[in-house]
Amino acid sequence: MTYFRRFSRERQIWLISLPIIIWVLVFAYFPMYGLIISFQNYIPGQTMFGNWVGFENFMRFFTEPDFWMIMRNTVVISLLNLLIGFPAPIVLALLLNEVKNSIFKKTIQSLSYIPYFISWVVVASIAFTLLGSDGIVNDLLQRFGMIKEPILFLGEGKYFWAVITSANLWKEIGFSSIIYLSAIAGIDRELYEAGKVDGLGRFGLAWHITLPSIRTTIVLLFILALGGILNAGFEQQLLLGSPTTRDYHEVIDTYVYRFGVQLGNYSYGTAVGLMKSLIGVTLVLLANRLSKRLMQTSIF
Q1: pLDDT (mean) for 10-36
Q2: pLDDT at residue 167 greater than cutoff 80
């Protein structure tokens, strides 16, 4: 009866949420029945309830010659995005919070948001224009006598991780900072006044008041980020990568696309994708449990 009373009391909220609930059920949950083909040798046009192979598709991935290379690239790119891309929006939000000129602040905010809405196709074009063998960067370096021959930033694997991390950072930092700016806006101004009375400067206010006040937001977003540790990217690797950089740009998602979709190995591709998702869910649950125990902060 308690649930019925709550539902009756909150019926207006449920009615407003109904279209979103239906959308999630139809487009997020209903298609999940297709995951059963990861345990089959599925052939398009045939029944989805025959030719079971068990965990054969999962074991195949671990025995592939490129397994360690793919996992290395996925983990390294993801960790770089996490170690650099996660704190960067926090720093940007803290810096913007210190800007007193509203016009300048809004201008910087708008400029930092714009890259998020730019397609990766456009970003790749910009990258080739800047970093190509005849691009702007190489041209400037040669003009200043810093190099004699153009550097193949996009043609040599040793530069790829730095390029992809920089592109991800440039594209995501502004939009990701919105959440932190919103959290900062909710901090009681009296705390800052009390901090100033105690002799705290700008750095002290940020360190002792702003960061502790948005700690819950930071922890929750970090837990969710851990769940996507194997989501190293897809479009950016396909667009910026080349055959000469495959040993550095091939990640799980591009591997599934090339060997699962393009070659028609749908069961194999589904199995690899399912395995990646299960690892992500496991990491979220572990991080959530650890955060709840150590910091009394968790998603659920």
Answers
A1: 89
A2: yes
Return the beta strands (E) in the chain as ranges: none
Alpha-carbon distances, residue 179 vs 92, 101, 174, 214, 288 (angstroms): 11, 21, 10, 10, 20
Residue whose token pair is 């046009």: 45
Residue 291, token pair as written in the block: 């955060």
Query: Three-class SS string for 53-101?
Result: CCCHHHHHHHHCCCHHHHHHHHHHHHHHHHHHHCHHHHHHHHHHHHCCC
| Mean pLDDT, range 228-244, rounded to an integer | 88
For the chain, give the mean pLDDT: 88
**52: DSSP letter:** B
Q: What are phi and psi of 52, to 5 degrees?
A: -75, 140
Is pLDDT of 171 > 80? yes
Distance CA 231, CA 43 (A): 27
- What is the radius of gyration, based on Cα positions, of the chain? 24
